[in-house]
Write a structure and sequence with these properties.
Number of helices: 7
CATH superfamily: Vaccinia Virus protein VP39
Number of domains: 1
Strand content: 15-25%
Helix content: 40-55%
Largest sheet: 7 strands, mixed
CATH topology: Rossmann fold
Radius of gyration: 16 Å
Number of strands: 7
CATH class: Alpha Beta
Strand order of the largest sheet: 3-2-1-4-5-7-6
Distance between the termini: 46 Å
């Protein structure tokens, strides 16, 4: 059996050398704590990258739980598949290749936990496409929601980041004020929003 701590270190080094963003230490601790507390049987991950966070969640979720993870970068998919195979988790983690905006509409079943770490400007769109697939009590974890401090800053963001900042603010406004969700925003790291779904009738 492969030593997972060695594999995680290898993935971290690979991501660093190839300039591939993976979940930071602060966010990963929040993710681990939430998975441990929630014990989800069905996880949806939007944004696989090279499989680091999927393997992290798989390590702490029930052994009979399943993860569906979505990625559209072909090279990252191949690398993630390799790491997931080496970890012995290929039966547990299903990799879907394509644009999450399209794939989310085709998914069947329900989810106990959703981890969003993909195109920052699409977070709200992703969430709205899966609300009907959330069980009551499901938890949604969105990473990088403060985007380098720009989302909460009163300074106008740089022009190239304006749309991302605007849309992340819209996401946070939605999960903070829609009565179907109870949300805590953690400002550590690059910001993590953890939202619990109360159900459609709230």
């Amino acid at each position: 059996m492969i030593d997972m701590s060695d594999l995680f270190k290898e993935i971290e080094e690979y991501a660093d050398e190839n300039d591939i963003p993976i979940i930071n230490k602060v966010s990963s601790q929040l993710l681990i704590e939430t998975v441990k507390n929630k014990a989800p049987k069905s996880i949806l991950e939007i944004g696989t990258a090279v499989g680091y966070s999927a393997l992290l969640m798989a390590s702490y979720m029930p052994i009979d739980g399943k993860i569906i993870t979505i990625e559209q970068d072909a090279n990252r998919i191949d690398t993630a598949y390799d790491f997931i195979t080496r970890a012995g988790r290929i039966e547990q983690i299903q990799l879907l290749d394509g644009d999450a905006s399209d794939i989310l509409l085709q998914l069947e079943g329900t989810f106990d936990l959703v981890f969003i770490d993909a195109a920052k400007g699409q977070y709200l769109d992703y969430l709205q496409k899966i609300i009907d697939k959330l069980v009551v009590g499901a938890v949604i974890i969105a990473d990088n929601v403060l985007f380098r401090g720009m989302v909460m800053s009163e300074e106008p963001p740089q022009k190239r980041y304006r749309t991302i900042v605007k849309r992340l603010r819209e996401y946070l406004d939605f999960v903070s004020h829609d009565p179907r969700f109870s949300t805590t925003i953690h400002s550590e790291g690059d910001g993590v929003a953890i939202s619990y779904y109360r159900g459609a009738n709230k």
